[in-house]
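User: Sequence in, structure out. Go.
Assistant: Echoing your sequence, followed by the structure tokens.
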Amino acid sequence: MAENRGRPTEQPAVVREKYTQTFYEVPSKPELGWKSVWYYDRSKSTAGPYKTEHTPPKGWKPEKIKIEKGKAYAKQPVVMVFKTSNRSNAKTKMKIWVNENIDYIINAASLPGVPDTAEILELGVGETFITKWQSEYNL
């Protein structure tokens, strides 16, 4: 009979192919905080999770962004290049605002000088966009 003395033989580590991990922001009361589920699959990604899901707590609402009209970017213009409609032969035009916030321009229901059917191609802040887009769109 052989004696088993000393260090036990090493067992190879078991590598799981598919598994998920669930994290709670408030572990004692999961319904109060965020829930994150991380999905791992070695056949899809060896570096980390291939998919994550984040679930907010009940009754959570994101903060509304307050858009301030008339807040300029250190006197830099906001430049918009748009087509007057979605047709292929529609005219391409450029509109420049000197004292306006870009968030207001994006979220405004209607803008003076821009038709409601317009398709926005480019939108940026700075004078370099004026010369760049004038040459690009032949304006």
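User: And one key feature?
Assistant: The chain has a mean pLDDT of 87.
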